Amino acid sequence: MANVAAPSTSNSFSWQVPAWLAPLAVVVAAFGVVPFVASPYVIEAILLPFLALSLAAVGLNILTGYAGQLSLGSAAFMAVGAFAAYNFNLRVDGLPLIVTIILAGATAAAIGIVFGLPSLRLKGFYLAVSTLAAQFFVQWALTKFGWFSNNSPSGVIDAPPLAIAGVTFDGAVGRYLFALSVVTVLTAFAYRLVRSQAGRNFIAVRDNELAARVLGVPVLRTKLLAFAISSFIIGIAGVLWAFAYLRTVEPHGFNLDRSFQILFIIIIGGLATIRGAFFGAALIVVFPLILSRLGSAVFGTVFDSGVLDMSQRIVIGALIIIFLIAEPDGLAALWDRLIKRAHGRTEP
Amino acid sequence: MTGFDFTFFLEVLVGGLLSGVMYSLVAIGFVLIYKTSGVLNFAQGAMLLFAALTFVSLVERGVPFALALAITFLVMVLLGITIERTVLRPLVNKPPITLFMATLGLSYIIEGAAQLIWGTQVHGLDLGIDDTPLEISGILISKFDLFAAAVAATMVAVLTVLFRWTRVGLAFRAVADDQFAALAVGLRLPRIWATVWTAAGLIALVAGLLWGARLGVQFSLSLVVLKALPVLVLGGFDSILGAIVGGLLIGASEKLAEVYLGDVFGGGIESWFAYAIALAFLLIRPAGLFGQKLVERA
Amino acid sequence: MSLPTKLRHLAALTALALVAAAPAATADDQSTGKEQFFPLQSYRVGPYAAGGTGFFGGTIDYFNLINTRDGGVNGVKLTWEEGETQYEVERGVEVYERLKNRANIAAWNPLSVGIAYAMIDRISKDRVPLITINHGRTDSTDGRVFPYVFPLLLNPYSETSGIINYLASREGGVDKLKGKKLVVLYHGSPYGKETIPIYELLKDKYGFDVQQIEVPHPGNEQQAQWLQIRRIKPDYVILRGWGVMNPVALKTAQKTGFPADHIIGNVWSNSEEDVLPAGDAAKGYVAITTQASGADYPVLQEVVKTVYDAGKGNLEDKKRIGSVYHNLGIVNGILNVEAVRIAQEKFGKRTLTGDEVRWGFEHLKLDEARVAALGAKGLFHSINVTWDNHEGDGRVTFQQWDGAKWNVVSDWISPDWALLRPIIEKSAAAYAAEKGIKIRTSGDVDKVTELGSEAPAASAKN
Lengths: 348, 298, 462
What we know:
By secondary structure, chain A is mainly α. Chain A has helices at about 20-30, 35, 40-65, 75-90, 95-115, 125-145, 170-195, 195-205, 210-215, 220-245, 255-270, 275-300, 305-325, 330-345; strands at about 155-160, 165, 165-170, 250. Chain A has a domain at about 20-255.
């Protein structure tokens, strides 16, 4: 079985504009402009899930895109993060939110290492299917043991308010800024990581394990490190999903479909690119909404909502396939090509 | 709970083995496609749903049983050919993960189309097999499960004959061994793929009918793939024999575990226990039961 | 076909979609005249589509009946818009955020515990009622803590007690329960586990023996569980099922020789969709319900005459008229409409605010005479919602499946509300403490947000 293919990223920053300018501009706009122009609907229904899923995709991309380990258990690590944060917050009095979040990430990382152990022996789909064990086991454990949800009779728990140093991030804008800050910090971390020695080790393991070993890369440790870091980030994405976005925590929300969704995001966005996670998440979050709004605006009077949604499912499925055929390297590659072409036009 | 109830143990064991056959049925569909095109076809569940839904909807519209079966088979053939044309051919030589994602997309399309065409109603499916239990020396055995096992055995026999002793089978094996070599000696890959997907469609039909009769024909039918995946890990993605033996092992140990270990864990462990068994086994024997050595190990 | 061109097309399409969709969210509801808007987070796709189409179909059919036959509620037209959720929480939230700024919202009716939970904070701030008929968060029965949440007719605890009371009546008295063996087969989810402590409580009270066995989600394999049941040899099996778990339970019961008429289903195991796939194995199976099935009730006849015969029926398959989910939808429609009507008596026959409709729900008293006047005698018993009891003392009945339809086989049974109330209050008090909610007193009930002074969240820009 071949390794997970990845588009080359090494040369994608050859254009004249400094590479850091575009991300910086995006971050500035996201902090400085978006909160003033976006309606609560846009923030609550689009930007918050977008941020949480982007972060999860960044995490998965480290594991799958960079280190080449296919995982179908992302949602489980999100669940671990969300429930860990809930319990740290509940059971340790006066724990600052930042620490809670870091501990939640660390818990997810620990669980990630445990479920990453099979990767030492297994590869490809065998590994992918075995990560499903994480998916089912975590869901089972979180439902089974009432302790995790503070013995709430229904098993669904309410997220605590988000407060750092006395400032409460209440309301849509507040939660958006909170989520955005977390995502910015972790994305910057991921960006640095993949360009560090560890990141190069990931790629070496992905591209040729044997060669990597010959070159002195500690393969086993590298794989587990990839699982740990990836789960850490995904776990924190789970915290954002539960605390900043939905405001409730329940195991069912972190099901297999969510894992697939995150996998879709990195495939469509582009494997082994950090930007790809954001492009992919934007498409996966926004596209179905546009489709359903467009569908009901155009055909709403002709067909009932069931027919529309079924068609929507078909369209999304078809889009995924078309995408894989037309742009296997993902939106990030498409974006690069567009930039290059734009440059070609202005500076012949 | 005094003493060990051996009859009960046997009953659980037999029940588990028969459930395992049902898992194998689904797993075989995966194996067939994986063997020849290297794809973990996640759309197998959707195909199963599509086949069962088409069949049951035809029967409900008054089409006779045999005719409905024939029409559904034809539809599955068309589906297989269409998939080859529109999805596989453009994606040839793409990495496995891309193909896997494509089958996920495919499952969206098939599930959507199945429900768009036939509606979201839940259907009962009666294959005319009475499911009153047989009692053989104190052990209850389901007639339906026996029937399902017989069907599975027949199917495996047919597939084995097909693979071993026919030209098509020879071509299949050639493709499974080495796609490029097969191509180089002039085998027409697209045709083989179309055949394989058709065969997988047929298996989906059989599995869909048997599972549909157990669960009712409804959306959740596509979830039975989750029962087949640990079987595949255990038996090897590319071995039909592995799918059978793996199914039996998983079925039996899962049931025994639920009954005898369930209390220790608090019950409901079946959802992940099968995966745990498969994993534990793989850690000892990375190639799976009968998988080829190509399972890479670190 | 160069890629940039494709992308430009995509961008144009996106812009078009946003333009097309934006006015739809604001313009068409400002139409002239009086109206009351019901946002419907329906699900017509996905694993639970059968329930969604029946329930939302029933509610819409009833709204149509009121509009066509009566010209609305005292001249106030009922309007609605559906948003598909596929039963997924985040889609439900999206629909909520999309529709919450529409004018004249009367109440929300998701038929999903997960979505309802995610909405509790939000609707409490927006001060619009959230109706979770037959399900929902049990402690929201306590209106002192949850002013805007209404688990009408039946909450999970009452359901449990109702089932035990039915078994008592079947055995010939509560004292006959002593020494009986029960097995509860529950779905491996928070929903399934919710009633575990209640069965334990009732066990201690009545002296029966109960074993609770979990079926892992989705429940398409139950061989192990039913073999255990075969060994336990219980008098009854109570099915707390969900989706595909129900027919599989019935089939596996047959396979292991357990009689169907000793299996009792709960409210999520009581529909045609739960038994039809099981075929003959379901014959004799009994399940709880708050609303009897069948299309003979006058109100359903009127729905058929006024709505379906005019080609405006919501159900695609007319055979489903009078099915369990459809009738639940009809009853839900009745309760929503009557709450509006009762609120209109107090606030005037005009469009009401959500908070005014909340007042209506808190005075939703439909005695048997009123239920009969509404053409629903026998369809459901009665309801009496008060400011602190948001469930409203709904009675339950039991239906038996004869292979083709459900037949009522019991009287209207009352759950043991007095026994359950302290547990509910305790849980609600804990929630109030955790959330810093001030517990309401009866004096707060009449403090209503009036028209024009709506809560800030509801009047925020779209």
